[in-house]
Amino acid sequence: MAKRPDAAGRLPSLPQEPxxxxxxxxxxxxxxxxAGGIVLLACTAAALVLANSxxxxxxxxxxxxxxxxxxxxxxxxxxxxxxxNDGLMVIFFxxxxxxxxxxxxxxxxxxxxxxxxxxxxxxxGMVAPAAxxxxxQWGEEGARGWGIPxxxxxxxxxxxxALLGPRVPHSLRVTxxxxxxxxxxxxxxxxxxGYTEGLDWTALALGAAGILLIVALIRVxxxxxxxxxxxxxxxxxxxxxxxxxxTIAGVILGLITPTESWVSRGLWGEIVxxxxxxxxxxxxxxxxxxxxxxxxxxxxxxxxxxxxxxxASLHPWxxxxxxxxxxxxxxxxxxxxxxxxxxVSLAVMAGLGIGKxxxxxxxxxxxxxxxxxxxxxxxxxxxxxxxGWLAGIGFTMxxxxxxxxxxxxxxxxxxxxxxxxSLASAVLGMGLLAALLPPRDRKA
Length: 444
Prior knowledge:
This protein has helices spanning 20-30, 33-51, 56-62, 80-105, 112-137, 154-163, 170-194, 201-220, 225-242, 247-255, 265-279, 288-302, 306-330, 343-369, 381-390, 395-405, 408-436, and strands at residues 66-71, 74-79.
């Protein structure tokens, strides 16, 4: 007879295999969000070391390896780096779309009063860095990189806050993460509006038709994940050929993903209860046991919303494969001390290290002053300044936008500015938080 939950309400454990002793800790590690920042940092350091070593030529040339396919007269051949930036990173942007949808429907951004502070802070944290960058690069060739210092890297910010453990108030974590989500929305708009050229309207129309088809399938209840995945790939390819950056397709697909489960908790409980009678041999036919278990399996899957299921399954792949691959392909740049003083490098560092905290603090102060928002419980203006510096860690999205905006020597110096500005922001933000936040009991 199957075991019932014990007095503490815990369900019986599933049978354990020898491999579980190895895989269980690994699974736990993969689901720790801050760990993604550690892996990303390690890959960034590896890319920098290799790009400045005797292996530099081979390392940098590897990412230029042509890969593609040809069907009749149509061919699509690009470098390995291009497929990472325009292919794998679509999954990264899809997860961002899922996170934005979740925040808008069930998170901090669903209520105007609660969303006011992170939205105001994010807007100021985007406008000020772009303005400082343009002020330093106005009329210059590098002015096109105005979007580089606007975004925040969530993985690194979460990793930094994790190092301080329970000293960081929950309200501050939520505010900073909500700010970063709004930042991502702004970065997506920047990519769509600021770095899209030469539209192929036919391909764009096909992509839009694919999105409408997916929406229609969702509405009529056709939830086959394989079918949706194939349609999603076709939508991505249409956007890729249209001139609109292909990652925008990922964001849109994330935003249209349903947030409600098909099977309610009440129905799920009823199905499990009746299936239990069948499995224990109390049903009219023992042959029904297999069908009952399959029914329970389907109901269990459909009791979790598609958004939750996809976000949980894709997040480890994004954090531990896609973003590290992106860092290896894009962060490797030969370092010259003179490049840190290059105009584009200085403009990026000023945008991240000065514009971010300045814009976040001023816009937050204005929102509070006007009565639109209030500071999180237990958080003062010094902590907001520290959070503003942490938001100046713009690594992943900044590198992505830099690759769209600049090329050649300008791109290399922009990358150096991103690395320098992000590092300085991390040190200043962590140092100020450590000085201002009181020690807390880890059991609290």
